[in-house]
């Protein structure tokens, strides 16, 4: 029986801006088991990245502020940790790979220096040990002539190779959780596939848990065991990956999956599109945030926000409507 490695409870994060307070994350709760890959999907601005940055206390404070919630990692609350305690967690036990490797790597430091730093900080390696381990890590992620390439700067690597370097750096201290924030978005399709295959192989070899943030449902289908769908700062559906694709129950998830081209379908068929725009979160939603765009909307949806509830088969959904019948839930 897998054990909870991470248990996030009612996380809320806000940002104060000149236009008003943005309620970016509005009570997110989820669990991550040992060795599991959780896909987190949703359109831009739904709160995916802010949720994970909040767990590691990487949001700028101010203007950002974590106003509620807990994030229990092996029983210890990440949100309550001091900056010194978080330094030992970040990189050492929970690592993060960001979307754009060019802006994540320091352009004026060699790759070797950037890789060796966490090994010295977290594991107490000597310079010689850190160099040897850095070469091993670059070889592990498929960088040729690794020993020579430690002397190079980030601009001397291609986009795909920079992302491999970021993954190698994230794995340097053998973390128990790897958070990948849209790591294939800036890469072409061929390189995307290579990065996904690399992460799957490393997960099997190292046994780490992964949170994969993306808007690409195709990537989620190939890498995740469980999927959380976010909208308006909430998780609005969560299920094992096969269950979600076979039986989506939230109108937003149905729309996302309906917008994917189906290779096996006969004849031509227009792709589904979701009308309207995502909500402006200057106020915390009191009604269902998707109700202005929903084809199944009922009067209750406009006045009350549903909770995420279990509907069987490890499937949870936050919706007042049973989309299989079109009727309101009891």
Helix and strand run:
EEEHEEHEHHHHHEHEHEEHHEEEE
Spans with pLDDT under 50 lasting ≥5 residues? none
What general form does the structure show?
A: globular
Number of strands: 14
Strand order, main sheet: write it out: 6-7-8-3-9-10-12-11
Radius of gyration: 21 Å
List keywords for this structure.
330 residues, alpha/beta, eight-stranded mixed sheet, 11 helices, globular
Task: Describe the protein's architecture and organization.
With 330 residues, the chain is of the alpha/beta class. The chain is 31% helix and 25% strand. The longest helix is centred in the middle third of the chain and has 18 residues. It is globular, with a radius of gyration of 21 Å.
Describe how the helices and strands are arranged:
Elements: E1 4-17, E2 20-33, E3 37-41, H1 48-55, E4 64-73, E5 76-77, H2 83-89, E6 94-97, H3 101-104, H4 111-123, H5 127-140, H6 146-149, H7 159-171, E7 177-181, H8 189-206, E8 209-214, H9 217-223, E9 226-231, E10 234-240, H10 241-246, H11 251-258, E11 309-312, E12 315-317, E13 321-322, E14 327-328
Parallel strand pairs: 3-8, 3-9, 6-7, 7-8
Antiparallel strand pairs: 1-2, 1-4, 4-5, 9-10, 10-12, 11-12, 13-14
Helix pairs in contact: 4-5, 5-7, 7-8
Structure summarized in a few sentences:
The chain has 330 residues and is α/β, with parallel strands linked by helices. It has helices at 48-55, 83-89, 101-104, 111-123, 127-140, 146-149, 159-171, 189-206, 217-223, 241-246, 251-258, and strands at residues 4-17, 20-33, 37-41, 64-73, 76-77, 94-97, 177-181, 209-214, 226-231, 234-240, 309-312, 315-317, 321-322, 327-328. It is globular and about 65 Å long.
């Amino acid at each position: 029986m897998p054990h909870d490695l991470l248990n996030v409870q009612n996380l809320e994060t806000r940002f104060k801006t000149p236009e008003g307070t943005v309620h970016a994350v509005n009570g997110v709760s989820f669990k991550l088991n040992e060795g599991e890959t959780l896909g987190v999907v949703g359109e831009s601005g739904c709160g995916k990245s802010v949720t994970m940055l909040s767990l590691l206390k990487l949001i700028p404070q101010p203007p950002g502020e974590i106003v509620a919630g807990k994030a229990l990692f092996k029983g210890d609350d990440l949100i309550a940790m001091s900056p010194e305690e978080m330094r030992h967690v970040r990189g050492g036990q929970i690592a993060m790979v960001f979307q754009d490797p060019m802006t994540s790597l320091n352009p004026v430091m060699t790759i070797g220096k950037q890789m060796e730093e966490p090994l010295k900080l977290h594991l107490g390696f000597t310079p010689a040990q850190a160099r040897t381990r850095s070469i091993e890590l670059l070889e592990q992620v498929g960088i040729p002539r690794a020993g020579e390439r430690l002397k190079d700067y980030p601009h001397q690597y291609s986009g795909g190779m920079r992302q491999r370097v970021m993954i190698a750096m994230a794995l340097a201290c053998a973390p128990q959780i790897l958070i990948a924030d849209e790591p294939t978005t800036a890469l072409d399709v061929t390189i995307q596939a290579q990065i996904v295959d690399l992460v799957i192989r490393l997960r099997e070899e190292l046994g780490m848990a992964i949170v994969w943030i993306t808007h690409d449902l195709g990537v989620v289908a190939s890498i995740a065991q469980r999927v959380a769908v976010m909208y308006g700062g909430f998780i609005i559906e969560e299920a094992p990956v096969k269950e979600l694709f076979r039986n989506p129950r939230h109108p937003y998830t149905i729309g996302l999956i309906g917008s994917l081209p189906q290779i096996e379908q006969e004849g031509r068929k227009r792709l589904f599109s979701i009308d309207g725009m995502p909500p402006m979160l200057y106020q915390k939603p009191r009604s269902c945030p998707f109700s202005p765009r929903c084809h199944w909307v009922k009067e209750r949806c406009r006045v009350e926000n549903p909770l995420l509830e279990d509907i069987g088969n490890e499937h949870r959904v936050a919706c007042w409507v049973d989309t299989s019948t079109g009727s309101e839930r009891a």
